Amino acid sequence: MAEMTPQRCRLVLATPSTGAPGDLARALEAALAAGDVASVVIPQYEMDDTAFQALAEALVPVAQARGVAAVIAGDSRVAGRVKADGIHVEGGARELAEAVERHAGRIMVGAGGAKTRDDALELGDEQPDYIFFGRFGFDNKPEAHSRNLSLGRWWAEMISIPCIVMAGSDIASLADVAATGAEFALISEAVFGEGRDPAAAVAAANALLDERAPRFEAA
């Protein structure tokens, strides 16, 4: 089923910190079957490298089978072993520069960890493929964090590198993220939290963005 890519803020999913690989693979498959998702980020959280690789081996093929980019946020060696589409770097400008030099042109290299405009500009100088405003695992309140919204709005107005802004645990918070002009909104708890229906959540998220998100001008 071929569909046009929406010309508005799109979803990025981050997988949760708990759950067996098989269970998460099924949840991810259900989520991706339910509507547009630009990419899936798989954070390492507190997992050791063996457990993280097992998780990545279970999830990366699920995303790629749907044509969705799979990004590893953690041990970059795991990204190579599972043939992920990208890596996400949280370690600062120096680590980001090394990752860009090593991987640019082969896989995506994204950046996170910026808490101020100066932090963000320092990361942007290294020309990552995107910058993320938020912190994996901290979407535990219904609304998006005001600092992430503020940074995303400023970045989207000033800088051409795409940005991802973390939403809250309530699907409704996506409207605030989209209003910043950010290209992407990241959700996790809203999709994979206890008692959530991943397919229903992604369908509802896309419906909200279709209705509320500003449209981007064609390049």
Unreliable residue runs: none
Name the CATH superfamily assignment.
Aldolase class I
The global form is globular
Named CATH architecture: Alpha-Beta Barrel
Fold-level CATH name:
TIM Barrel
Describe the SSE topology:
Elements: E1 10-14, H1 21-33, E2 39-43, H2 49-65, E3 69-73, H3 76-81, E4 86-89, H4 93-103, E5 108-111, H5 117-124, E6 130-133, H6 146-158, E7 163-166, H7 174-179, E8 184-187, H8 189-192, H9 198-212
Parallel strand pairs: 1-2, 1-8, 2-3, 3-4, 4-5, 5-6, 6-7, 7-8
Helix pairs in contact: 1-2, 1-9
Please provide a written account of the structure.
It is a single chain. The protein has 219 residues and is α/β, with parallel strands linked by helices. It has one domain: TIM Barrel, CATH 3.20.20.70. It is built from nine helices and eight strands. It has an eight-stranded parallel barrel with strand order 1-2-3-4-5-6-7-8, surrounded by five helices. Helix 1 (21-33) runs parallel beside helix 2 and helix 1 packs parallel to helix 9 (198-212). The longest helix has 17 residues, at 49-65. The two termini are 25 Å apart. The mean pLDDT is 96.
Which key phrases capture this entry?
219 residues; alpha/beta; TIM Barrel; 9 helices
Question: What's a quick, concise take on this entry?
Answer:
By secondary structure, the chain is α/β, with parallel strands linked by helices. The protein is 42% helix and 16% strand.
